[in-house]
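Lab manual, section 2.4: Encoding a predicted structure.

Procedure: take the sequence of the chain (410 residues), apply the prediction step described in section 2.3, and record the output as structure tokens. A sample record is shown.
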Amino acid sequence: MTRHASFFQQRLLLSLCGSVFLFILLGPTIAKSATYYVSLSGSDANVGTSTSSPFRTFAKSTRSLRPGDTLYIRGGVWTEQLDLMANNTSGTSGSYIKISGYPGETVTLRYADSITAGYGPIKARGARGYLIFENLILDGINSTNKTGWQIPDGNHHFTLRNLVIKNFKFNGLYIGGGNDIQVINCTINNQISLSKSTGERWYGIYFHHGSNGLIQGNKIYGNPGGGIHAYPGPISNLIIRGNAVYNNNTLAASTVGGILVWGTSSSIVSSTQIYNNLVYRNGTSGSGPASGIQIGYYVRNTKVWNNTVYANKSYGLQIGYNTTVASTVVQNNISYANGASNYINKGSSTTYTNNITTDPKFVNASSSNFQLQSTSPAINKGVYLSSVPIDYKNTPRPRGTSHDVGGYEQ
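Recorded output:
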């Protein structure tokens, strides 16, 4: 009996050792990411993992999503809310969940939120993050109240890419405490102020507070209150670069033109970088004093580099009101043909060098072509900036002996 038991114990030990060796050799089993599809012609009884067998509803398709997965939304006009809160849908670091319009198809989310200041077409508040949204049109035309997409406290690591956000009776995009939010290559236009009052000065992007934000490569136009409104903070490490911000501010009640950065005594705005932007024709005959780029109260260590600021109603570059605005660096900017003045500085310790406020000889300003003619006084007249290695169109800088002044490198 003892010899028999010993034999089986030895066999068991060898088997366990072999299993351990095989586990070490092959490594642990890693779940593969999945791709799902949802279509207006689909069915929630489908498997959802192929274009020929898509789900029908967002509710069903989001229930299946796990970190690393992708959901493709097929073309059409969707009136269902994309709710990521019902099932706590969230990615993880290194395993983002991507929700995208299907390549080559037009996907419009036209959910009409019935709640004032509600969730809007995408319901994703709370401590969820590592989410990518791309190739979608968010259209608020069906909304009858003040609501839009809001990314508030708790949200983090959102990437918004190639979206269109339009026609909301609210700010196009409200970021109210979300950290590490990236808004890249989006079009944000024509929000609607019903009352045209101070309380409805809707902006393209309202960055209320947060850290490590990126606003890059967007077209922001036709918004009644202004283009980009970063206020009241606290805000830190916000980068605003490579955007075209134009034809905003049609309201007498609004003082925001293209880009405004402004803090309060209890909520400082620090370390903002604003560069390679085209900021033009903000403000109309009936609007408030719309400046191109305005740095307001309680702002520290702002960098304003290589922007083209043209024909805004009020000031081109407006820096500060008193010593609460400190250590602003203004270099390599073109500020020309603005209504009140091309440059005004009331801050403290402002660095102002290598800027041009005389005729820069644009190729064709009337058609919004702000590239430089070969005879432009802006060519090679900038200071070298290692932090600005490309221009508005991603052309490498410098191409000559030094940086050109303004948004374009000749």
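Check your result against the sample. The chain has two helices and 38 strands.
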